[in-house]
Structure formats: structure tokens, C-alpha cells
Design a protein that fits this description.
heterodimer, A: 231 residues, mainly alpha, flat, B: 256 residues, 2 domains, elongated
Amino acid sequence: MTGTEGDVSDVQLILLLSLVGGALSLDATAAFQMMLSQPLVAASIAGLVVGDAATGLVVGAALQLVWMGVLPVGAAAFPDGAVSGVCGVGASVLLARSGVPAGLAVACGIGIALVAGAAGQRVTVWVRRANVRYSNLAEVRAEDGDPGGVRTAVILGLGTRFVASAALAAAALAVSLLLRPLAALRVPGVFPTTLWAAPIGAAALMIKGKGVEKYFIAAGLVAGLAMSFLA
Amino acid sequence: MTKAADTQATGVVTGPERAGMFWRSLFLQAVWNPRGMQNVGFCFALMPLLKRQGDGRDARRAFLKRHLAFFNTNPTLAPYAIGAAAEREAAGANEAEVALAKKGLASLLGMYGDALMWWALRPLAGIAAVLLALQGNPWAPVALVVLYAVPHLAMKGRGIAVGSSLGPSGAREALGPGFKTAVRAVRAAAAFGAGLVLAKAASTESGSLQPWRLVAVLLFLVLAYVAHRVRIPATIVALGGAAGGVVLLLAGLNGG
């Protein structure tokens, strides 16, 4: 598995992006929660890592719109936005440099990203089960008045989240390489991302809203169309 | 139960203790689990208060156990509860009073925090960033993080400060009467932004409107709305949308 462009092999690229995905996924719930794990941010960072910032923005914007309906609230297991963003860009770039037409590579990248993000829900359930054990560890050591168990549990919780998300990203990017035979196809043009992703985001806001959102969405649409018309 | 080290636990929460709690509150959900939820993170955040218990095994065990109890709320506003629990600890309150302070604030902070952060500010930050990204602006991800993280960290800091100085009642009052109005305004702004993104999707890169694209956008909107309504999983809806995009690509109808 070697790349056809630059000095970085496919394997090196996958390892690098997996580490980035694992680190950014910590932000989703485990630490900080500063939105570094949102797909647009993760995809943009991945774009900078692979030297293709434009693809990072395009893929990230589409996934961010899809993520409008994803809320990391309470006990809900949610798709992994960081892994999704990183894999979307990574798979797009890996396929493009294997000769897959650019539009098709982005389409495949987004497909891989959505599946990887959904698989992240299962990974989150597994990580939370592991966290029960770490919580038990903290409680057992607390019986002796030892606060070290709490610190150890926090470190184990962060480490497990990082490793699990990094492994998921590596697996998803490795699977994306199976799509390289698509290089034989000749599909010119750009994959239309916003065209289908924007309605999904708007629909999510309407569904999860209080009822008035649809009027503001309509107002924004009319205002935007008026600006386009005048342009 | 009164703590064994009551004489050492009296007083006010100090500046270094507040700073320590703020930093540690950023890891509130590091060990989120289905049983105790944020229990380990809450106890971790209160560690700066542990030294007030002295070296006595019983006092330290009691402190750790009462803060390893079940706890769950919105992570952005959780510092109000962390600060309030610290204030109660520093004031020498008994175990029941500390537990009451935590329990009393958890549901209130969860309700307010989820409404503001997850249901309002996050969509607004996301939509604003998407609008920038669609213009090819490389600062789009920075805008998303700044729009969300600045209020997020500010509220966390304020939560520790208010909770640890005024206690549980002060934390409740600090949420303020204008909270619901702010949530409604932010949600409306996010929805308006989503409308702008829809219009952008119906236009070419140069900004001119294309009727067929508008029809396609509205069709996708109806399909996505119905799919959400009948509870088709979000991933399936998104994959369906992407498949529609592939059809347009193969049909030679291109555009971002």
C-alpha cells in the first residue's frame, strides 16, 4: 500500500490521520467539549494534515450539516464526528491519489465517513462499558481513602477513548483502500455535497425544534434566494 | 454525618482551589459510564478540596464516596454544581446537605444547559461555520470553535466562581430570567442560517440561482423531513442523500 503522490505512503497517512482522529474524538465528551470533534473542524484539520485544505472544507461542511441532528446529550450514544470528519477527508484523498476521479473520490469519502461515524456509536457503547470498570476501580480505592483511583480512572477513560477512536479511524481508512478499483471509471465533475446535505440539516432543525424554526428557515431561504436573484 | 475534619473544612473556597476545579471540570465526562454517569469526573473536579479533609483515612474516604455518587447534568453548566458543592464542603456542611446541593442543581442545570448549548448554540456555530466554508473561507472551523468554546468556557468559569462563592441558591439565581429568551433568539438565528445554506445549495458557485437546483433542494428537504418523522436512522437518511448526490454526479449535474 503505497501512495502515488509525495513521500508519504498510504500506511503512514492512515496512521497519522488515525492519531488525529483519536485525539480529536476526546473532545466529544471526554475532555474540553470545545467542538474540536465536530466534523467540519476535524475534516479541516485532516485537510491541512494531508495538504488538501479545500477538500477538508467541502467534506467537512457536508458532514457538519448532517450532524445538525446529532446531539451528545445524556445517555445517548452518538456518531463519532471526529472520526467521521477525518475519515471523510482521508478516504477522499487516498482514493484520489490512487487515480479515482475527484468527484467520485469525495462521494466515496463521505460514504466511508458516514459509516465510520455510525460505527462510532457502537464503539462509544463499548468505551462506556469499560468506564464502568474504571469507576469501580475508583470506588474500591476510595474505600481506603485513596484518591489515586479517581486519577487513574480519568487517565484510563481518556486513554480508552483515544485508542478506540484511533482504531476505528484506522480500520475505516484501511477499508476505503478496497475502493481503489474505482479508478477504472471515468466520471467527470464535482460531487454535489451541499445540494443534499443542506436539506438534511434544515430538516433536523425543524424536527428537533419547537415549531417556529420552519418559519425562520423559510425566511432565510427567501433572503438567500433574493440575494442570488439580485446577484 | 458530620465530617471528622470539620475544623479544617470551614472557611471559603480559595482562588487556587477554584482554578484547580475549573481545569479539572474540563474532564468531567472522561469516565462517563451508564451507572454513575459523571460521578468520577465530579469527584475528580473536587479534588482540590480533598486536602481540607486532612490525612485521616475516614474523612478522606467519606469525601471521596460522597462525590463518587451518581451525578449527571449538562457539562457546560456543571461547574455551578461543582462550585456549589465546594462551597458546602468549605462551609463544613454535612453529607446530606452536600448531596442535596448536588441533586437540587443537576436537573435544573441539565435542562437549561442542554437547551442553550446543544439545541441552540451548537447549531448556530455549525451553520455559521458552514456558510463560511461554502465560500471557501479557511477560517470556518476556527469560527465554529470560537463561537461555541468562548461562551462554553466563560460559563464554566462563571459557574465555578458563582457556585463556590454563593452556594446552591446563588447558582440557581445566576441562571437569570433572560435565559429562555436568549435560547429562543439563538435557535431562530440558527434556523435563519440554515435557510441561507439552502439558498446557497440552490445556487451555482458564482451565486446565480438555478431553478432545477432549487427544485432538487426542496425535494431533498421534503424527503429528509419525512425520513426523520418516520424515525429512519440519521445515518441511513444521510447515506440516502449522498446516494442522491451520486446520481446527480453520474447524470452530469455538477456543483457544490
